[in-house]
Write a structure and sequence with these properties.
The protein has helices at 13-27, 41-53, 71-74, 104-114; strands spanning 2-3, 9-10, 33-38, 60-62, 92-100, 121-129, 141-145, 152-158, 164-170. The protein has 171 residues and is of the alpha/beta class.
């Protein structure tokens, strides 16, 4: 993480991914561990982590859409459906996301996850924690922590070759 001469934040998403890979490996503590990516950036990360760690099968993908407290204004996002290709009951779940901010998406995702069963444990790994939490939820692993003004958002992008990058956007 560096600042450019203009003062803009620069995050090397690929370097953070390498750190995250090692952090997630440490969270995979049992043969019942399953990765679940939060749409969309978290799902991209979970797919790559699943392969790079060498875990069998496919990771889960989970959407927060149906449990969000702002569902009436946001509606359903395209392509944001939950797919959990394994039994949730009794599994050790590692939720994967790109950025945690207020914690509201994570709250909604946990509600969605429990609609599918009761896991033995749930841990959270993120590329970036950006502060600003509105709920008492913290990641078990964060590759980086940054502070951004509320008027900015941090978006993960995935290139055609699968490489990640971050973009700071004005909200």
């Amino acid at each position: 993480m560096t600042s450019s001469e203009s003062g803009a934040l620069f995050l090397d998403a690929e370097a953070l991914y390498d750190d995250m890979l090692h952090g997630v490996q440490r969270l995979c503590t049992s043969p019942r561990t399953r990765l679940v990516g939060i749409t969309s950036g978290g799902a991209w990360l979970a797919q790559r982590l699943q392969r790079d760690i060498g875990l069998a099968g496919e990771p889960g993908i989970i959407s927060s859409a149906l449990h969000r407290d702002d569902f009436s204004t946001r509606g359903l996002a395209a392509g944001g459906q939950t797919v959990l290709p394994f039994e949730v009951e009794g599994a050790d779940i590692v939720l994967i996301d790109d950025v945690i901010y207020t914690g509201r998406t994570l709250r909604a995702v946990i509600n969605e996850l429990f609609d599918y069963g009761r896991p033995a444990s749930v841990k959270l790994a993120v590329l970036v924690g950006r502060g600003g939490r509105e709920l008492p939820l913290q990641p078990d692993y964060a590759a980086a922590r940054v502070v951004l003004p509320a008027a900015q958002s941090l978006a993960l992008a995935r290139a055609a070759d699968g490489r990640f990058s971050f973009h700071v956007q004005e909200a």
